[in-house]
């Protein structure tokens, strides 16, 4: 399969590059990242995420002035009309908790995104190597500031 095949669509909404980061095969928590594009002129609201392998919640990481990262629970997230929203490390993410499975890099992890008006999209998260992401995490912190803006 080509690398860019992971694209899921529903009523003008498309989800691309969905992936999951966990720390170790027996991780009890993990984070999901993806890009949601919205071709509609009105914003769309993602109000819930469900997964069969754990409890899913929407979170946002905020870094305070002292560089301490804190996660905040979000009730929903809005994707602007004719725009996109990127869920990425250090920002908005899907938090998975109470995970009861063993991770295996050879398979994908299905998740359902539920939008306020448009219904739900089933997507598959690709598991990214925990070791690689830990390195990337350290690297990001090493540079101190990595605020990202559109
Ligand atoms: Cu989180």
Summarize the structure.
This protein is mostly beta strands and 150 residues long.
Model description:
Helix content is 9%, strand content 52%. The protein is mostly beta strands and 150 residues long. It has a single domain, classed as Sandwich (Immunoglobulin-like), CATH 2.60.40.1890. Strands 1, 2, 3, 4, 5, 6, 7, 8, 9, 10 and 11 form an eleven-stranded mixed sheet that branches. Strand 5 and strand 6 form a beta hairpin. It starts with 6 loop residues before the first strand and ends in an 8-residue tail after the last helix. The relative contact order is 0.26. The model is unreliable at 132-148 (pLDDT under 50). Bound molecules: copper (II) ion (CU). Copper (II) ion (CU) is lined by residues 31, 59, 71, 93, 95.
């Amino acid at each position: 399969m080509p690398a860019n095949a992971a694209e899921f669509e529903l009523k003008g909404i498309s989800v691309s590059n969905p992936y999951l980061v966990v720390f170790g095969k027996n991780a009890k928590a993990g984070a999901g990242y993806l890009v949601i594009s919205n071709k509609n002129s009105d914003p769309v609201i993602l109000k819930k995420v469900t997964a069969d392998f754990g409890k899913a919640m929407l979170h946002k990481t905020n870094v305070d002035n002292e560089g301490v990262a804190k996660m905040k629970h979000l009730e929903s997230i809005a994707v602007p009309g004719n725009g996109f929203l990127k869920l990425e490390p250090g920002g908005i993410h899907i938090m998975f908790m109470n995970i009861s499975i063993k991770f295996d890099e050879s398979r994908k992890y299905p998740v359902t995104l539920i939008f306020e008006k448009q219904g739900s999209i089933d997507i598959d998260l690709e598991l990214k190597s925990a070791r690689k992401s830990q390195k990337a995490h350290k690297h990001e912190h090493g540079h101190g500031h990595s605020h990202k803006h559109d």
